[in-house]
Amino acid sequence: MSRTATAIAPSNIALIKYWGLRNESLLVPYNASISMTLSRSRTRTTVEFDPDANGIEVWIGSDDGPQEAPDGFSRRVEEHVHKIAERFDVSGGFSVWTENTFPASAGLASSASGFAALAVATCGALGHPVTGSEAPPLVLLGGSGSAARSLAGGYVQWPSRNLRDKIEVVAPRDHWVLADVIAVVESAPKEVSSLEGHRRAPSSPHFGRRLELLPARSEVVRRAIQQRDFERLSKAVEEEALELHLIAMSCRPRIMYWRPGTLEVLARVRELNEDGVPCCFTMDAGPNVHVLCEPDDEGTIAEALSDLPVVETVIRDQTGHGARFQDDS
Ligand code: PMV
Q: How far is the CA of 197 from the centre of ligand 1 (A)?
């Protein structure tokens, strides 16, 4: 008899970025990363497992109803699902339906929410609804490090200070709810995947220096979160975002994620600061800009960014809870 489970997992925005893999097959990053879990940017995934069947079907939700997933995407899903099934020593057939509330592959961490939701739903469908510290190693089998951080809410570090396949909650969601106003300047899939970016990162002449600077910056971010110090957080987060892109632009072959719209949004953020509106920017591996602020300033910032002709859409998000099963599954 088949069994079905549905999971919802949020995306996250990295405050300290994961960029570069020391060991790709074991997914060992060069540095620990810290992110804020989001609330409205999420993936919802349903997995059906039938022990008497074979193969896998993958469907993606769209405005025109479910569409069969493109080959590359299906293959990554299939590999992840099979690795999880192997861990539990089971085999059979799978059907996977997945949908995002935001544009996929646009530097909005769809791999984070996608692989977190896929792992949680697959485990549920296999009859092993994992929680707590058992979950990150199963999520990491999908190959996305940032996905492990989406398991928990609030502010999350991966790897934890001691273990490669564990996460650590720096502060829970209710400790400090910040707004994240996301200015989408391009919703098309990005040209160079994060995986390829991780591979190229160490070829940047600035990569070694980055690794020297990171422990102190990460500590500033952890403290700023714990003390709810927005000014200190802003300075470190912007420095970190620019450094990720410095590494991307200077690795070989170089990667240019920015678009003209990216720079226009950064300039608008500076103007808002000059007008006395506290906010800071960050970008993951893509052209879109996340503008972080206290919830009271969210409306002003969303309006200012929506007014820019280069901005396609503004997504108003905030600190959220981690991945969970959907109640009716
Ligand atoms: O988890 P991946 O392989 O999609 O890599 C994420 C890379 C960044 O988004 C650029 C940084 C991060 O820490 O999320």
A: 9
